[in-house]
Amino acid sequence: MSSPPPPTEPEAIPASLRAQLEDFRKHLWRRKILEAAVAGFIGLVASFLLVYGLDRLWPTPGVVRFAVLLAGISLLAVFAPYWIHRWVWRHRRENQLARLIARRFPGLGDRLLGVIELQSQHEQASSLSPRLRAAAMETVAAEAGRRDLAEALPPGRHRKWSLAAFALLALAITLLVVTPRAGVNALKRWLLPFSDTPRYTFTHLDHPPEEQVVPFGESFPITLPLTPDSERRPASAEGRYGLQPPVSTPLSGNAYTFTFPGQQEPGTITFRAGDATHRMRIKPVPRPAIESIAARIVPPAYLSIPERTVDLATGTLSVVEGSRVEIQLQASRPLRSAAFGPIVSTNEAPGKPFVPASGELMMQGRYARSPMLDVDGHSFEIPFDWTDGHGLRGGDFKLRIDAFKDATPTAYLPGAERQKAILPEETIDFEVLAEDDHGVKLAGLEWQGEFTRPTQGEPAHGEIKLEHGGPEMRRVNGPVAFSPGAFGIAPQQLTLRAWVEDYFPNRGRIYSEPVVLYVLTRDEHAQMLKSRFDRAIAELEDIARREQNQFEENQRIERLEGEELQNEESRNRLDIQQQAEAENTRRMDELTKRMEQLLKDSARNKDIEKETLRKMAEALKSMQELAQKDMPAVDGKLGDSQERTNTPDKTKRDVQEAVENQQKVLEKMQQAIAKANESNQRMEASTFVNRLKKAAAEEEGIASILIHAAERLYGLPLPEVDPADRRVLSETTHQQAETASDIRWLQEDLGHYIARTENAAFKEILDEMRESKIDLGLEEIRNRLILNHSSSATGGLPHLTGAKEWAVKLAAWAKKLDGDKQGAGGGGGSGDSEDEDFEFMLRVMQMVQKEQDLRASTRALEQLRRSLETPSPLVP
User: Fold this and answer.
1) Helices first, then strands: H and E counts in the chain
2) Could you write out the three-class secondary structure of 667-706?
């Protein structure tokens, strides 16, 4: 069996066909590579233009710009490789090209594909003739040579894409040329999407804030200025707060000023001006408030008062002139700045020009304080202005500072009677009160005496220091026990005044209203008591007359029947009678209290005899029974008669009992009046003795003064007398006239007394006085004093009676009356036992009074000792 023939070697396609396919491949590759490059360039330029365009509409976020840049680069980095892979890498072999040609020329393509496959086949000679294969290749090559394979190329996009690329590039270049700032800005933002390069706008706002704090609930303005190099300046701009209606505003100058309504919630305002868009965060915040205000006050040095800090909740401060003031503010949050002024004066201070001041406050967080401000005679207002860290201004606030002068201190003698008559051994208790607005330094009591009749002694004068105060003691008070006898003060008129000193330089003492004390001799005291007793008896008689009138009216009412007493008219009459009885009872009670004091004062005067005091005590006892028992019984029965629940018989009995009780009241009143009159007559008799003694003492005093001044007065005409001696002479003349007048009244009173009592001893004295013609003699002495005939006025001349002789006669008459006055008031009418009881009671009363006087005098002397030993008050 013969072996098969060896396989034939593959035969290459004709060179012409190979050249055609190679030329087709080059055309394909060149076109598709160009398309890939142009597409990538278009992507880059388009992404730049897209960023430019978006930036014109809104501030393109970095993420969006990065996505646009990534999309533009992707055409070059992703699409171009894909495109090259598809058209270049996948069309590098003849069979791949044949398939592409088959899309345009199916028959030719299939044959080309067949020829290319024959080229790679290995066959046996017996199966395929090499000649036939070559012939087939030649045939296909000849057919392909008759065709333009370029027509089989896919549609070309490179020209359109190139035109688009050139157009986009031209647009980009135009934008860069026409709007270089916007173009360069967009190029930077495109190349560096995550950089902080701000978007460029043709309308360029000048650094608008991203956030602004505005007043809570208040309308607020926002101003957006344009930069000087802004390319566009729209005629108006718009701002919109959240979803609220937009607010438009025109361009004014180089800025837009918006006014938005008050807001209470945070929000965002979107502003649009041309292509510029700006978002601003708004935060409503309450304005900074002053939570507290205080003042540090440094008082004037002379007050020696430490500085103090006071709260100024009312916005008003009052300080003394010469002080210095620092104002301290506490705000609700930290402050950026604070200032005061200009200060405005609110009053005129003579001689002190006002200098306005202003300045910055010293700050530390929420706290601010002013410099020290001097307070002179001007009151003024200080306006304050402050701004917090957000730039919000505070509200309007003004502080008023009133300057007042250091007031004059005041001294009082509260509760002290303005005028009072006492014996030297008596003590009066009162209080000294001193006040000052800035501290009492010292307080005391001063007295100045004045003789009411001529005498050789010197008027009393003295003082005691009672209370040492201090710079911060605005009120001092202390009790005073003042006894003329303890200070060795003889009977005279005393003027007492409290005084006070404060710390104001060179002000001196300030005195209270005076209290006048009449320090009386026993005879003067007795005369005063006699006058008080006269008034008391007159009032007792008046009460008795009223009671008699009421008794008569009650008797008229008593005649009515029981039924008549219960009608309305009778009830009204009874009610009027009850009110009148109550009023009479009240007056009797008040009079009884005055009589009690009169008895105590009378018991103090040893010149008033025991029998007079006993009669006065009996009258007082009756008056006490009337005021406390008898008269209230009448009042009660009159009230009982008006009860609505009474029967006619009960009403009748009540009225009858009231009348019976009232009759007893009248009888007891008459007894009291009789006893009082008896006591008064005895006191009146004693008064005549005292009045004669007083007149004798006055004449003796006149004679003593004239004798003492004899060397200076004798022989001188009145115009040549020294002014001081002329004053003494004038006072003596006046006193002589008063004594002469007293003697005339004494004679008249004696006449009336004798007419009532028919007392022989008193009548004898009156006759002697009339026979001596003493009233004419005293008047003659006054005339001599007027002419400065002091020698003859004194006495001692044989043919003329002077003051000295009349003093002796008056004393003799007083002594004679003093021995005979025991029978002036009639019999006592009391048993020995009652007399002893009263004498014992009187002695006890006088002992108690003496002990009280001694204790009060000791207190007064102790006060004087402390006043002399206490050092001057210390000044801190």
Assistant:
1) 21, 28
2) HHHHHHHHHHHHHHHHHHHHHHHHHHHHHHHHHHHHHHHH
- Report how far residue 51's alpha carbon sits from residue 189's, in angstroms, rounded to the nearest whole number: 8
User: Domain containing 307: what range?
Assistant: 290-404
Q: For the segment 542-551, what is each residue's pLDDT rounded down to a tens digit?
A: 998 998 999 8
Same structural domain, 164 and 38: yes
Which residue is associated with the tokens 């007064």? 860
- Half-sphere exposure for 532 (CA within 13 Å, toward CB): 20
Q: Which two tokens stand for residue 218?
A: 């208040």
Domain end among 404, 423, 442: 404
Q: Considering only CA atoms, which of 513, 512, 516, 509 is closest in space to residue 450?
A: 516
Residues 392 and 374 placed together within one structural domain of the fold = yes
Instruction: Kindly state whether residues 788 and 802 are assigned to the same domain.
Output: yes
Q: Residue 89, exposed/middle/buried by CB under 10 A (0-12, 13-18, 19+)?
A: exposed
The CB density around residue 238, as the number of other CB atoms within 10 Å, is: 15
70 domain residue, yes or no = yes
Place of tokens 């007492």: 496
Q: How far is CA 268 from CA 250, 278, 354, 374, 511, in A?
A: 21, 10, 51, 50, 76
Q: What is the pLDDT of residues 817-843, one digit of tens each?
A: 776 554 444 444 444 555 555 555 555
Residue 173 in domain: yes
Backbone angles phi, psi at 273, to 5 degrees: -135, 105
* 740 and 817 both lie in a single domain: yes
- The residues that bridge with 571 in the sheet, in sequence order, are none
Domain co-membership, 279 together with 333: no
DSSP-H helix ranges across 404-467: none
d(Cα 461, Cα 449) in Å, to the nearest integer?
Answer: 6
Same domain, 230 and 90: no
Amino acid at 550: Q
Which tens digit of pLDDT belongs to each residue from 176-222?
Answer: 788 887 778 777 877 777 777 877 778 888 888 889 999 998 899 99
> Dihedral of the CA atoms 525, 530, 535, 541 (nearest 10)?
150
Report if residue 499 sits inside a domain: no
Residue 855 lies inside a defined structural domain of this protein = no
- Same structural domain for residues 167 and 297? no
Q: Which residues, 6 or more positions from 91, have their beta carbon under 8 angstroms from its beta carbon?
A: 25, 28, 29, 97, 100
Count of structural domains, the chain: 4
CATH code of 326's domain: 2.60.40
The domain that contains 255 carries what CATH number? 2.60.40.10
Q: Report d(CA 791, CA 778) in Å as an integer.
A: 15
Domain boundary among 143, 162, 191: 191
| pLDDT score of 19 | 60
Largest Cα–Cα separation, the chain: 229
The gap from C-alpha 350 to its chain's centroid, in whole angstroms, comes to 28
Burial class of residue 131 in the structure, from the number of CB atoms within 10 Å of its CB (0-12 exposed, 13-18 middle, 19+ buried): exposed
3-state secondary structure of 656: helix
What is the reported pLDDT for 359?
A: 87
Q: In this structure, are 258 and 342 located in the same domain?
A: no
